[in-house]
Amino acid sequence: MIxxxxxxxxxxxxxxxxxxxxxxxxxxxxxxxxxxAAMSVELPQLxxxxxxxxxxxxxxxxxRLKKNIKTRDIPVIMATAKGTEYDKVKGLDLGADDYLVxxxxxxxxxxxxxxxxxxxxxHNESQIHVGDIIMDISSHQVRVSGEVIDLTLKEYDxxxxxLENTGIVFTREEILNLVWGLDYLGETRTVDxxxxxxxxxxxxxxxxxxxxxxxxxxxxxxx
Length: 223
Known about the structure:
With 223 residues, the protein is α/β, with parallel strands linked by helices. It has helices at 9-21, 32-39, 58-67, 85-93, 106-120, 153-163, 172-180, 189-202, and strands at residues 2-5, 26-29, 46-50, 76-81, 98-102, 127-130, 133-136, 141-144, 147-149, 170-171, 209-212, 216-219.
């Protein structure tokens, strides 16, 4: 169960719809009081928490969650407005597991939620297997049809993003944010170059990375 605390109803409804479409059960709340009421009944796997909320701020809610022995281990992803560097740093210092800068893409949100859930799951599998591609997270090794493939750090991160989100279409901007980071100042052409190189290194298996014309890229589970 994912809890989304967002006071904008249209954004909140879209977040819930997208998460549930991705197979993640979720519920939405307007503020900290509604969140507290729900937490007294059921604790979630993860909380999406907006910083700017009516009444108690997201930063204050995060601080309470991390001080409470019952809730301190629940992963939290903060949503911050563009340009609020202080809020982002403050949230991470207080124990937030990740952050999203508004306005953010829904597929980027799903990817970050899944990534945080995997990091926080003690029973998480160490291997990702799609078609002939096997990625071993613990050894940071990629094999295609049994042969080890030498990838750069960004190629590895790019491939991992696709492997963990098969079937999801990412725009070039979303890929830049997820792989290179929000502070990267390069152009989206960087994504195209890295994907071309990655496809070449993967050989025939690289055909599973599809170009979605006019949008971006996605990885098909089967080709």
